[in-house]
Amino acid sequence: MIAVFSSAGVAEMPEFGFMQQIDKMSDSSLAPFSDVSREILSRLSSQLVGRRETPQFAALGYWLRPASITRLKTSFAARVPANQFPVARGMAFHLPPSNVDTIFVYSWALSLLAGNANIVRLPSRRSPQVEWLIRTLLEVLEAVGDAHRHLFCAYDVGTGLNREISLRADLRMIWGGDAKVNDVSSDRVRPDGLSIGFPDRKSLSTIDGDAYFRLDASARDALAERLFNDIFWFDQMACGSPRVIVWVGDSVRCEDLSRDLYQRLTRVTSRKSYSVDAGVALAKFGYLNDMLASGTGRAAYRLGNELSVLQLDPGAVKPPDKIMGGGVINHVVFPHIEDVVSAVDHATQTITHFGFDIESLKRLVEKLAFKGGFRVVPVGQALNFDTTWDGIPLLDYMTRRLVLIT
Question: Helices 128-144 and 35-48 meet at what angle, rounded to 10?
Answer without folding.
Answer: 140
